[in-house]
Amino acid sequence: MRTAILASGRGSNLQALIEACQNGSLPIEIVAVGSDQLETGALKRAEAAGIPTRVFLVRDYPHRQAQEEDLLIWMRENRVELLLLAGYMRVLGSEFIRQANFPVVNIHPSLLPAFPGLHAQRQAVEYGVKVSGCTVHLVDEGLDSGPIILQEAVPVLPGDTEESLAQRILVVEHRIYPEAVRLLVLGKVERTGRRVQILQKEGLA
Ligand code: GAR
């Protein structure tokens, strides 16, 4: 399945997806990586893997919607069938979601619907929850509100900081993001309204 990935930063989830493709556990072809930032770790990782990259700086466009229209053109040019957000720190507008005729998937570092938006790990530490985690979900027109494919809990330990919790969650993100995408592309994700059922999980590590 021809897949594009959008990432704004370091790109460790992008790297996990690239490696899952390389080791044969994730049957997608990453055909393009885009970023809304210059010179990010994500772009460097994509280039190292030989994947074409493009930067879409919002300041180069008259307004945000124009940037998203360009993203859609780029995806059509690349015949994209699946879009993965891997630390893409912008909310895609509802017009983009309406026009995207392919699934859009995101990973978020909390157990949604708790702590949507920015700094989810900081929100969790400040709230004082004892358990947080991460969520892979389909993107809809809301903020981190789409149907949930997979979630996994991660303990919040006494003395945790935003950084230490983020690091513990990240290890799990790198495992469940490729796993969720694999289930989706193998047709094992059945959606009824906003509820997603995983049909089979055998064969997964
Ligand atoms: C990850 O923790 C991801 O879940 C989070 O940004 C980080 C990106 O790290 N995404 C969001 O917060 C989206 N709202 P990475 O660039 O190393 O993959």
From TrEMBL:
InterPro entries: Formyl_transf_N (IPR002376), Formyl_transf_N_sf (IPR036477), GART (IPR004607), GART_AS (IPR001555). GO terms for cellular component: cytoplasm. Pathway: Purine metabolism; IMP biosynthesis via de novo pathway; N(2)-formyl-N(1)-(5-phospho-D-ribosyl)glycinamide from N(1)-(5-phospho-D-ribosyl)glycinamide (10-formyl THF route): step 1/1. The keyword Protease does not apply. PROSITE patterns: GART. Its EC number is 2.1.2.2. Residues 1-181 form the Formyl transferase N-terminal domain. (6R)-10-formyltetrahydrofolate binds at R64, N106. Keywords: Purine biosynthesis, Transferase. CDD domains: FMT_core_GART. The keyword Cell wall biogenesis/degradation does not apply. It comes from the Bacteria. Belongs to the GART family. This is Phosphoribosylglycinamide formyltransferase.
